[in-house]
């Protein structure tokens, strides 16, 4: 009975604060830079010298280029999946069909909508034309198809 009582009670884990030289935060910061930041940041408590108790969050926003900025955003789920399928089967077809959807975008000026419509038509044409050339158009079309699905990820649509 005494043995079973000891096995059920787990030993209390002592929480030790990590040393800043051993932190893996994904951003390269020298010790001097970290101390300079941590001295000026009220969110980081300095309990012991060289020990960080706070946390930094880094947000990365993807910058899209000429063609990438013309991809219609927030398509309905079934339309995005269908366009993705078309782009994978017939390079440029999903892109061609998506061009009118760029005219329905919210928060964009009429000039920007027309530019995106033209860029989608140009991209569809180039995807179709460059497919015989080392399958570049087909690969580009697949990448474009994936871009149709990216906005759906936040709406409960999971990629596996």
Number of strands: 0
Q: SS-based structural class?
A: mainly alpha
Q: What percentage of the residues does DSSP assign to strands (E)?
A: under 5%
Uncertain runs: 2-13
Largest sheet properties = none
Please write out the topology.
Blueprint: H1 2-8, H2 31-40, H3 77-89, H4 93-98, H5 110-129, H6 136-149
Helix pairs in contact: 3-6, 5-6
Describe it for me?
The chain has 160 residues and is mainly α. Helices cover 44% and strands 0% of the residues. The longest helix has 20 residues, at 110-129. It is elongated and about 55 Å long.
What are the salient characteristics of this protein?
160 residues, mainly alpha, 2 domains, 0% strand, elongated, disordered N terminus
How would you summarize this macromolecular structure in one to three sentences?
The chain has helices at 2-8, 31-40, 77-89, 93-98, 110-129, 136-149.
């Amino acid at each position: 009975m005494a043995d079973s009582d000891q096995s059920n009670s787990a030993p209390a884990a002592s929480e030790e604060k990590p040393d800043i030289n051993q932190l893996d935060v994904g951003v390269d910061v020298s010790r001097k830079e970290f101390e300079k930041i941590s001295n000026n940041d009220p969110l980081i408590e300095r309990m012991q010298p060289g020990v960080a108790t706070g946390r930094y969050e880094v947000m990365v926003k993807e910058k899209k280029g000429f063609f990438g900025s013309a991809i219609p955003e927030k398509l309905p789920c079934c339309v995005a999946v269908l366009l993705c399928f078309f782009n994978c089967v017939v390079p440029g077809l999903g892109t061609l069909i998506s061009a009118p959807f760029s005219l329905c975008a919210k928060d964009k000026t009429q000039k920007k909508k027309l530019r995106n419509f033209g860029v989608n038509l140009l991209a569809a044409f180039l995807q179709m034309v460059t497919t015989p050339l080392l399958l570049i158009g087909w690969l580009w079309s697949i990448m474009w198809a994936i871009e149709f699905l990216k906005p759906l990820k936040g709406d409960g649509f999971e990629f596996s």
